[in-house]
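FAQ: What does the model actually see?

It sees only this:
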Amino acid sequence: MSTRFDVSALAPKAYQGLYAVSETLAGSSLGAGFKHLIDLRVSQLNNCHFCQNLHRDWGLRDGVTEEQLRAVAEWSASPLFNAGEKAAFAWAEALTRQQEDKVPELLAELRRHHAETYIAELTMIIAVINAWNRVGISAYAVGPAAHG
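And it is asked to produce this:
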């Protein structure tokens, strides 16, 4: 991996602020493993290879299985995820893709499975990984693009 430019050095206060929010959310009610699965799915949608690699590694460190990691892209058809987890993935996809028309229905489904605090934390996790994806896409070259 090569760095195109160093966001943390060029905008240190903003970078530290985003990092602080991330650290706060690391202790969310989602649990570390499932948080990484949400982060991975959003990173897949945004095509941020740097963040995908990071959350695969961190997910494994925090108890996510290889099978779960492989199933994230097809979460809706996977028996590995329960109805509450699938509701969270649907919410993450709708917010990332800016599908405002789906919000009322998906919020109702989330409320069937989760407390309001969980939903608020999930929403912030989705917002933050979307921000990190923009940083990752702009600042890091991963894979074939890193070599040319």
